[in-house]
Amino acid sequence: MTAQPVEPVDPDTFRSLLRRQAASVAVVTAAGSPPVGFTATSFTSVSLRPPLVSFCLARSSSSWPTVAEAEHVAVHLLGADQRGVARTFATSGIDRFAAHSGWRYGPYEVPLLNGPVTWLLCRVTQRVTAGDHAIVLAEPLVGQHGAGDPLIYHMGRYAALQPATDEP
Q1: Residues 6+ apart with CB under 8 A from 44
Q2: Which of 33, 104, 136, 145 has its CA 20 to 30 A from that of 9?
Q3: d(Cα 160, Cα 80) in Å, to the nearest integer?
Q4: DSSP character at residue 19
């Protein structure tokens, strides 16, 4: 039997298919003049030994030039009550830190947001070009967790977890 060639999915189909994947919502920040921050749903744990995390960022993003040079970043996993924070840091063409007053400077002058479920200050270890994006690998140096449930992004909107029901 001869295998038939299969064409890759087009970008619109790809987007439509992956909208069904629920993802945690993170805001990534980096020191700069001015500091930068952006909302990401691509954050994930990569390795336990050594601890590594990753997130992806479009290389056309206004935040990319700073992240491309940053030695340190902070990743904030947002809580279900932080939809406004997610929207602010997802909005292009604004000073996101002026629009959101709940932050302070942390180690290495990296902005730290108030009130996330978890935050990690990380050292960037590698940047990998992947299509029109970059995959940023980072080593957590310090972190802290707060309280509350995570903010989730699914089907193009923000959502909160609902308790699972056991099936009989």
Answers
A1: 53, 54, 55
A2: 136
A3: 5
A4: T
| DSSP H or E segment with residue 14 | helix 11-18
Write the single-letter amino acid at 6: V
Cis peptide upstream of residue 140 (ω within 30 degrees of 0): no
Per-domain residue ranges for the chain?
A: 25-153
Omega of the bond leading into 50 within 30 degrees of 0 (cis): yes
Residue 90 structure tokens:
């997802």
CB atoms within 10 A of CB 144: 10
pLDDT in tens, 102-156: 999 999 999 999 999 999 999 999 999 999 999 999 999 999 998 899 999 999 9
Main-chain phi, psi angles of 79, to 5 degrees: -90, 165
Phi and psi angles of residue 26, each rounded to the nearest 5 degrees, phi first: -125, 155
Instruction: Give 25-153's CATH code, choosing from 2.30.110.10, 3.40.50.2000, 1.20.58.220, 3.30.390.50.
Output: 2.30.110.10
